What does this fold into?
Amino acid sequence: MAIDPEKLLRPVDHPIPLYPPKMFTLASGEEMIIRQIGRDEIPDILPYIAPLMQVERDYYDIVSARVYAELLGYYKHRVQDEYVLVAQIDGHLAAIVNGRQLNPDVGVSFHTLALRRGLRVGSHAFAAKMEYHMDIMKQKEVLIVAESPIGFRRWMIEYQLEKRFEVAHELGGVPSYALTKKLFERARETLVVGRRPVPAKLLEKACQGILPPTDPPKPPFDVLAATRSMYDSTGTALMVARNLDKGGKKA
Ligand SMILES: CC(C)(COP(=O)(O)OP(=O)(O)OC[C@H]1O[C@@H](n2cnc3c(N)ncnc32)[C@H](O)[C@@H]1OP(=O)(O)O)[C@@H](O)C(=O)NCCC(=O)NCCS
It folds into this structure.
């Protein structure tokens, strides 16, 4: 009898309660909705993530490459117990967060990606996923790592996360930090904002389709600017490379 290999490869998800949608009024006065999406909406957002892989600034390249792979893994049933939340402003994609349940007590935070800057949308989206783990999944702690200095400031410092350096996080095996129930309760009043229920009309509009981000991070016109943001403040490495390309001598 032939065996369907897909049955062997595909992990079986545990039943996990859904994240109830939430809304925020941002500093700009715009309303933002955060809601959970299923596999059916993943192909809609992958094209908005792909261009960010060319943005070196603030580590968008590595984070978006990883988010892309994680979302594809979710879509193609190659990750167990993953979830994805999206933030939308007037239907347009503003942030993506994802993670998964490691076991009933412990959650794993994968990534937070802000596609609109300067409004703390990433911070709100991260808080929503912590709320999902703590209030909805009723977990004891969430394992978290940062891949960028802004991420480190937003999560490790703002939430004063505890070190769990004996635990290798699923993201590249770097040492973990953890959000505990106690830390979450302390942050609840200040960092975990937003309101429910989302009015039916607004939610309906958000669910009609995820529109492209209105002002996503873009690569610089001149790659010299990119090297400047990458610990080469004078851009010397690039200028030397350009000189060599033109047949010049190494300085
Ligand atoms: C980390 C991240 C999710 C935070 O999102 P956020 O809370 O919405 O915050 P922003 O990125 O808009 O702003 C971060 C800082 O940059 C500043 N900033 C604002 N607009 C900016 C812009 N257009 N470009 C660069 N920086 C900007 C903000 O003033 C803010 O400073 P503050 O911390 O003093 O408030 C987001 O920066 C991001 O997606 N970064 C790339 C991926 C990443 O690092 N993810 C986290 C992995 S650990």
